[in-house]
Design a protein that fits this description.
mainly alpha; single chain; 2 strands
């Protein structure tokens, strides 16, 4: 019934958006994994994830265009900036926030988001910029669609980071320590786990992933501070669908969010609402996942 009111494009018109959606889904998965691992280790939901990556990408643009730094070093600076800022934040605020309520922890990172967004608006104003990576060159054709190397790397990196992190958490000593913190921080400390060191490493890894995500997104969707900052919502939706627990579910949810959002774009009647897609998908998934929960009133059982 609903589809009857829509003027749907042909499959050939959908194909370029499918390729874009898969690439964006790969980056959302990359970000989602960073958010889930940090949350599981420290209990902090880092809402500043997108802003950190956005500022790293703008720094890379500045180094390439105004400082004459070779592109490779500028891109590395973007990734390292994400790791440095996040690690510093974790070292300074990780301890004081450790015993606080999850809402307080998330609100603290929201403050970091606002500081970085304000700094980006002040330093770089609102002028349009673009960061063209060497990987923007065509890689191969799929039917009538030309796929570039940035799209390939985005999806491939999402796969590699998701399942590489899964193996890391399962088979390494540091991964075991991180899972121990996720289960019970106090018991893990009692058993000799170096809590602060493990948490610092989780902050660092999460920050490096935010820098990489910002660099890729700046090429896929454009170098705009606000846009890159709030694209974290899509990654957050994927992480929430996975209930901030499962990395494979985060990965596949991120792909769905990316693809569905992209495929809505060419549908004229509803394209202006595509930014709602992550919220809608998260709500539908969470309602579906909780459909079997039953409420038992004391005294009525049996």
């Amino acid at each position: 019934m609903i589809l009857g009111f829509l003027d749907l494009p042909s499959w050939e018109q959908f194909q370029p958006f499918l390729a874009t959606g898969l690439a964006l889904g790969g980056v959302y998965a990359l970000s989602g994994v960073g958010m889930v691992v940090l949350y599981q280790t420290t209990g902090v939901l880092n809402l500043a994830f997108g802003a950190i990556g956005a500022m790293g990408a703008l720094i890379a643009w500045e180094l390439v265009n105004n400082a004459g730094v070779p592109e490779g070093f500028a891109y590395l600076a973007c990734v390292l900036f994400g790791g440095a800022v996040t690690l510093l934040y974790g070292i300074v605020f990780g301890g004081p926030l450790a015993g606080r309520d999850p809402l307080v922890k998330a609100t603290a990172t929201l403050g970091l988001l606002l500081i970085l967004l304000g700094a980006m608006s002040w330093i770089w104003s609102d002028k349009a910029r673009s960061l063209t990576l060497p990987t923007s060159t065509p890689a191969f054709d799929v039917g009538q669609v030309t796929v570039n190397w940035t799209q390939v790397i985005a999806l491939g990196l999402g796969v590699a980071v998701t399942f590489g992190t899964l193996a890391f958490l399962r088979f390494t000593n540091l991964g075991t320590a991180m899972r121990a913190l996720a289960n019970d921080r106090e018991i893990a400390a009692t058993l000799g786990v170096p809590v602060r060191r493990v948490e610092a490493q989780a902050w660092l890894v999460s920050g490096l992933l935010s820098g990489a995500a910002g660099l890729l997104l700046s090429n896929l969707v454009g170098l705009d501070a606000a846009t890159l900052t709030f694209l974290v919502i899509s990654s957050l939706s994927a992480a929430l669908i996975a209930r901030l627990r499962s990395l494979p579910v985060t990965f596949f949810a991120a792909l769905v969010v990316g693809v569905v959002t992209a495929l809505i774009t060419p549908i004229f009647e509803i394209s202006e609402y595509r930014q709602m897609t992550p919220f809608v998908l998260a709500v539908i998934a969470l309602l579906w996942l909780s459909r079997r929960r039953q409420v038992t009133i004391p005294g009525t059982a049996g």
